[in-house]
Amino acid sequence: MIVQTLSETKAPVTEQPIFELIEVEQVFEVPKPGRSLFSRETVGLRALDGVRLNIRKGTSLAVVGESGSGKSTLLRVLLGLDRPTGGRALYRSKPILEGRATGVEFARDVAMVYQDARGSLDPRMTIGALIAEPLRHFKIVPRQDEAARVSQLLDRVGLPADAADRYPSGLSGGQVRRVAIARALASEPSVLVADEAVSGLDVSTQAQLLILLRSLQRDMGLTLIFITHDLGVASFLCEEIAIMYLGRIVETGPTDAVLDAPSHPYSAALRAAAPQFFEPLSEPLSGEIPSPLNLPAGCRFSTRCPKVQDNCRLKDPQLGKLGPRRAVACLHPLEQQ
Amino acid sequence: MNDTALYHVLSIKDLTVFRGAAKILDRVTLALAQGETLALVGESGAGKSTIATAIMRLLENARVTGSATLAGEGDLLTLSERKMVKLRGRRLAMIFQDAGTALNPSYTVGRQLSTTLQRIHGLSKSDARKQAIDLFTSVGINDPEGRMSAFPHQLSGGMQQRVMVAIALAGSPDLLLADEPTSALDVTIQAQIVRLILKLTRERGASCVFVLHDLALASQACDRIAVLYAGQVVESGPARDVLERHRHPYTKQLKSCVLEIGAKDLVAPEGTVPSHDQMPNGCRFCTRCPRAVARCADETPPLVPARPTATGPLDHHIACWNPE
Fold this sequence. Notes:
The complex is a heterodimer. Chain A is of the alpha/beta class. Chain A has eleven helices and twelve strands. Chain A has one domain: Rossmann fold, CATH 3.40.50.300. In chain A, a hairpin with a 2-residue loop joins strand 9 and strand 10. The longest helix of chain A is centred in the middle third of the chain and has 17 residues. The radius of gyration of chain A is 21 Å and the shape is globular. In chain A, 45% of the residues are buried. In chain B, 31% of the residues lie in helices and 22% in strands. Chain B is globular and about 65 Å long. The two termini of chain B are 35 Å apart. The N terminus of chain B is likely disordered. At the A-B interface, helix 8, helix 9, helix 10 and helix 11 of A face helix 7, helix 8, helix 9 and helix 10 of B.
């Protein structure tokens, strides 16, 4: 039986968060638009602004948002690739960067599947060598067991054992993504971070990969952080969801609860814009995501919000609790039925 | 519109495209009524974009047989290039998937639209500019006058796609081919662009062929759907017939892969599309088909009415030896 209900998956989860982001800010200094050729003027681009997020061990979290919402910046902070300019980013209660600086444990424990799977694999290495690399680097198995472990991993992601002798160029898009997943799993991580790991694939290949990812997450007890723009993917794969808009998480909670009855008008708009069989095309949001160089006053969604009220343009709402395990950053959250 | 409902703007018959030894389209037959929107759906390699490009006669290094008749002009595949140049933009126009690369990076978007208007309507420079601003307004570009002097890279993906729509509609074509016009865009922008294309084509009474990979979006945006697999039309007809009363096993499989929000079950099909040197002679889906019978591998099933009551080429059709 593949279907698991939310209550079943909740039981083994301990409440100690594996990742904790407290008011994380990431401001990039970028050249001021329209500055003269020799000017060094810069302005701050707030890529992340007051991000609060707890990721519990063993959960699966979808980070959803449109381009420019800060998903990738958030990912870089979680992976310890960038030092946030404000706030605290903790991994197992210690600053992420500290964890990264002291030993290889963080890198072994938190594995990443990149969006451009083909680009993340060295084209001159065979698949076998690519998967063996992390095994050797993290000293997972003795040398003589390497080959056996590689074929075990290939089998785990549904690739034939003879794929080990092939090169990335000889594999299809779906197969390359499986290799990237096998490589990420090689270090026996407890956290798997995937950036749009199934986007740009045909629906049948996407379905195969999603089933694989879900079974991996459940069988190995992985904590899965999955960046996607597809709400269908999020609802299939992830227990929890965090919806981002313009550098801030505007709503989080259990995926089904949030998507059934969104409280933030942006979540509702995103939900309505997702194609649904034979539903009339939704009335789209007006306009486009504003430039992060020039954030709107008050609520950052106020320029496009269909439910905007006067005080929305004055006060910037923070992510606040809205009932059990849900939080929303809105002054006038939508009524819950 | 009712009295012209059966007037076929485009009818494609046995369109076959060879690229080297590979037959990338295999006897595609389709028809399109005036004012109607048709979705071509299928996975990559199904030949969706090839159909659109073949109709525009923009295919290179390919041998094309069959016919594609545009009402009043004859077979597009045999017209002289001179004639085609006249038709492109005026009677048929195309919106490409990636507006960022389809627009010329060295000219302002205003100039790209005005030159099109000057060429098609023979307008003077100042009249073309005026009309270009009007068109930019109608495709929902705010500050159209200011945007006239913007270069493509200064615009967002959604705005670039709006510019493409404006250029495609500049000559009021009666057939618009939109090749995955929104697949590079965010969902909220996708909804804007699809609605825009539908609104503008309906206002002009034009017909539209959408190349899509999203079945749910196809059901929302299009009157009819043609499902393609590896270069063959396997099922076509009114959207509800194809998606809710489908009889071809591939349509069923494709639909089962669509993730609806809240769905917790998903059936992943086995295998992949065979490569062209291993393509079966008969139905190309037979290598993965759960209902395949002996004759499937050797004989191509013809596209026939799915129900005895069907009459015209716009009705529900399937190509299968063992339909459901």
